[in-house]
Amino acid sequence: MSIYQRVSVDAALHVLRDINRKMDVTQNHVTTGQRVAKASDNAVYWSVATTARTDNKAISAVQDALGMAAATMGTAYTGVQNVIDVVSEIKAKLVAASEDGVDKDKINEELKQLQERLRSVSESATFNSDNWVVLNNDATPTQPRQIPASFIRNADGTVSVGMLSYHIDNTPVGSTTSKDARYLIDDRATGTGEYGVLTSDHFATELGVSQNYVLMTSKNGTTTGQVVISLSSTTTQGQVSEMISVVDAALSQLTTVGSAFGALEKRINLQNDFATKLHDNNTAGIGRLVDADMEEESSRLKALQTQQQLGLQSLNIANATYDTVRQLFQNF
After folding, report:
1. Better-predicted residue by pLDDT, 42 or 228
2. Which residues of 116-135 are buried (b: 16+ CB within 10 A; e: fewer)?
């Protein structure tokens, strides 16, 4: 009988080493939850999954931007809606002033309060220090406001960011008109308030009334010739009618502005829903490529543990022959 390592021992050791190697792999899958954790596991799947993960981070950033934009749009829309309510009250006061025997001075006091409220509401429609209804010196009225809306990976591997634009911010064709009043207030020093519905005198000039009536004047712009809508005991019936016409025209443009904000807010919400679904689909795709089947891996681990125990027993049986040889020599 040879006392050198036997074939049976070699076979048992080989089987046990193979079982231990498979157990290490399976244990790693169970611990990490991934069957492709590094490039050496599967270079193609790892590359695709890594790219998809980076794209998901970009999509998450877009979702954050859309969330901020939705909040900003919601604030702007609320501001426009409140201003419409206040201007409607001003119109109602002017209609009441057209009646015979009313105290126009008392009505004018109410008008002043409502006009102060118009500026307060407009300036308060701010979210994260961003106000989309008041134009100041640091803003360009003809420059579209843009919002990151999508992350695009093209077929050639290049990437780009899709933008949503506030679509009524367009450069006017020819001279500025009342239709270019896209904001509530235009306080720019370089203008006359023409881009603000409440500060534009284009409504009055286009109607051909006797005065360049405005609901309020710009803080910094040129206001020469403009007349803030107000009443006094000397205000004529004809002047009241002109003021009502101007206010009604401003209300029509306010409705246009409110509709534009509402439409953009809807687009933002739809785009955010799409980004959420795209993120979820990417995550699911990554999982299909690299995630381990935990039920399968757990079952495999249990089987390998059983095989390991049997392998150890086989090795012990194979090693037992050495004890037999040793016992033979104990009598010498």
Report:
1. 228
2. ebbbebbeebbbeeebbbbb
